[in-house]
Each structure stands twice: as C-alpha cells, then as structure tokens.
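Summary for the lay section of the report: proteins are chains of building blocks that fold into shapes. Here we show the chain for Hotdog fold thioesterase and then a coded description of the shape we predicted for it.
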Amino acid sequence: MSIWKKSASVHALNRDSAKTAVSHLGIEITEIGDDYIVGRVPVDERTVQPFGLLHGGVSVVLAETLGSLGAFYASPEGHTAVGLDINANHLRAARSGWVTATAKPVHIGRTTHVWQIDMVNDEGQPTCTSRITMAILAPR
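The coded shape description reads as follows.
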C-alpha cells in the first residue's frame, strides 16, 4: 500500500530540481516505490573534497533531498515539509562511480516525520547512513 498522498513521478521530481543545488551536484531521483524513494549522486569534480573522496556534506545533501521529498509527498495536500534535524554516519569512502541512496520512513506522524536514508557505492557497500526529522507544516 502506497504512503504517498500527493502525485509524484521520477520525471517530475527531477524536473522540479532543475537549477537548484540538487541539479548542480548531479543528484538524480531514479525510483519511487510504494514506501521509498531512491536517488543517486555522481562522485566527480562537483562532489569530491580535495583528497578525491565524496564530500561528506554531499552525502548529507543527498540524504536531505530524499528525506524532504519523501516527507513532502507523504504529507496531506497543502502541507509542506521542512527539516528539523539531520545526522549522518560516514561508513566508507567513495572515490568514483555513483553513490545511491534509499529513503524510507521510520515514522509518519501528523506533525513530524522521521526518514532513514541508507547509501551504497556501485559495489553495494554501505558508504553512509543518515536520519532526518521533518516538521510537517499545515497550510496557512
């Protein structure tokens, strides 16, 4: 059973991210399931730190992007979602390829959501795990 309360498509989510930090970093939404969103970020000159590793902050941007989209589309029509808190544990460096993340809800409440975002490299090895708490704001 789907958790989505608003209509969403991979095409629309990518289109709406044009000319934002998301598109600047090359982040792409690749899949929407009944209770999850998948996206990925390239490990390239836009996203690495000076030592050639994926910048930890970019992993957090990917996590916040997916968690925010999930919370927004799983909240009632007219409601918005804004981040309250995010954390990330960096588990393994990524030096090339793509890092792919899957966001799933841990809690969907009336005024808050908690989303878990797990990231892996091209070999399927964990690179980062993140959790975001979102405030769900009713229309004014």
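Put simply, here is one thing we learned. The radius of gyration is 15 Å.
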